[in-house]
Amino acid sequence: MQQSAQPPWEIVERGVFAIGSCRVCGWQSPARRAYSTARREATEHGDVCPGPPSAIELAPAPQTPAVP
Ligand SMILES: [Zn+2]
After folding, report:
1. 1 contact partners, CB below 8 Å, separation of at least 6
2. Domain region containing 13
3. How far is the CA of 18 from the centre of ligand 1 (A)?
């Protein structure tokens, strides 16, 4: 079966653990022994994902005043 709409996250398997990893913002779930738990947490993250970091306006670094 094919899904045209892929979620922005994927489940990474690391040994016996499954970790949800967001491709959009880089979020990662705690390592879970249950694939279903990691998947559920990743799904929940998808609802609150803040989006790609580049979309967040970074405040310019404050300039250090030149002290003579
Ligand atoms: Zn995310």
Report:
1. none
2. 9-50
3. 17
